[in-house]
Amino acid sequence: MAGWRKEIGTALLLLSAALLAGTTVGHTTYWLLLVSVYFLLNQIVHINRFERWIALGGKRQYPKASGIWEDIYYHVYRIKKNEKRRNRKLSKMVDQFRKSTEALPDAAIVLNTDDQIEWSNKAANSVFGLKPSDRGQRIPNLIRFPEFINYLKAGNYKEAVILPSPMDSRVTLAVRIVSYSSGLRLLLAQDVTELKKMERMRKDFVANVSHELRTPLTVLKGYLETLQDMDDGSSSLLSQSVQQMKDQTERMQHLVDDLLLLARLETQKKTIQCIDVPALLSQICKEGDALENASRRIELTLEADTHILGEVQELRSAFTNLLGNALKYSPEDSVVKVRWHRTHEAVVLDVEDSGEGIALADIPRVTERFYRAEVKRNKKIQGTGLGLAIVKHVLMRHDAKLGIVSKVGKGSRFSCYFPVSRICN
Ligand code: ADP
Predict the structure, then answer these.
(1) May I ask the CATH class of domain 195-267?
(2) Distance 297 CA to ligand 1 centre (A)
């Protein structure tokens, strides 16, 4: 403001001087014109000086000026200085961030919307064998595993994809993509070799133990049956003990069978064929009827003659488990409904009972291994707690989902949703 006042003061002073000169020596217009030209030229000189200073980045101390030009120089100089300070701070932060990501043990790559590499850290370079010249290259050209390319294309980055390192096949990587601002994505790869090794050891251990337990259990069961045959009923304690031993041996046999099935589901390769699900369901329901000795309990409705691609033994065991549970956890005289139908997005199997139901808090947990909901019942219901874990695993291998709707005392509905992409007839 002071600059403006000084500028206006100077202009008024020059005008007054021109007017004074005009009235004393005449030619007022010339004097006024002279003063205006001087004023204009002075401004042009200032503008020129300012342009030269700003063209050089406005970094150096600004030239000496007075009036409004001093204010302009001062303000621009101050803005430039602040900007410089901010830039210095920002580049320090970027430097620190770069150093910390370089020190990360996990590989990190920034991808743009065209899947091109924008930036990668040291770990990414050694894990994926990237070179500085790979910047700007498309990642599918460098990491060529089909699982990875499908994962990248699908755009569903909720879970990680497991890959061997392209540099060393003994190293297993869990690769995850995280989307952030305007199409940029961060690819993170973590070395999970040890974790996967331990997981494999656990699976192998469970599978081996289960396998080894099979023979002794069969022998035990055989002897117990012989003992039962030989029992003349003279000692009720002996009869009861043998019966209990036989029940427990059978229970252990179920447990071992379920554990072996789960181990197979985790390790075996899928052999896919087109399955006539209505025929499979009819057979399973018939077997269920025979098992239950109450042919009116199972009501099968086949609303769609849809066949799906899958593994028949796996689906058989999943469906049998669902039907078995519905029969087990509902009164003997109640109806169990089995329905095969189609919606827009899926082909669905519903298994519905009007039994004891499942408490809301238990629903998310019933598919966990060995989880059995605690329910007060008159009669103990035998089970391994592995049935629904098997169902979940089988459905996962068929890209299907399990839905559970249940109300305590009213009943439950278990629904298997198969994607329409699996339809094969
Ligand atoms: P299991 O039946 O051998 O105990 P599952 O894994 O098949 O093991 O089921 C886990 C638990 O889920 C069961 O113990 C039971 O509490 C509950 N559950 C499963 N199906 C039903 C059902 N249809 N009605 C009520 N509860 C059920």
Answers:
(1) mainly alpha
(2) 18
Looking at the CA of residue 367, tell me the nearest atom of ligand 1.
6
pLDDT digits (tens, 9 = 90+) for 223-255: 999 999 998 889 999 999 999 999 999 999 999
What Cα–Cα distance (Å) separates residue 227 from each residue in 240, 246, 254?
12, 10, 21
The number of angstroms, rounded, from the C-alpha of 196 to the middle of its chain's C-alpha atoms is: 19
Predicted confidence (pLDDT) at residue 1 exceeds the cutoff of 70: no
| Range 273-422 has CATH code 3.30.565.10 | yes
Average of per-residue pLDDT across 257-263 = 91
Q: Which residue has its alpha carbon closest to ligand 1 atom 14?
A: 372
How would you class 419 by CB atoms within 10 Å of its CB: exposed for 0-12, middle for 13-18, buried for 19 or more? middle
Identify the residue whose C-alpha is closest to ligand 1 atom 3.
Answer: 383
- Tell me the average pLDDT across 301-309: 96
Domain residue ranges in the chain: 2-96, 104-191, 195-267, 273-422
Residues with CB under 6 A from ligand 1: 321, 325-326, 329, 353, 355-358, 366, 371-373, 383-389, 412
This prediction has a pTM of: 0.68
- Cα pseudo-dihedral 161, 166, 172, 178, rounded to 10: -30
Distance CA 44, CA 65 (A): 13
Whether the domain at 104-191 and the domain at 195-267 fall into the same CATH topology: no
Protein residue whose Cα sits closest to atom 19 of ligand 1:
325
Domain spanning 104-191, CATH architecture: 2-Layer Sandwich (3.30)
Which token pair is 416?
């298997």
pLDDT band at 62; cut points 50, 70, 90: confident
Closest CA to 298 of 337, 351, 329, 348: 337
Asked if residues 141 and 149 have their Cβ atoms less than 8 Å apart, the reply is no
Q: How far is the CA of 269 from the centre of ligand 1 (A)?
A: 28
Least confident among 1-15, 222-236, 328-342, 383-397: 1-15
Residue 351 Cα to ligand 1 midpoint, Å, equals: 13
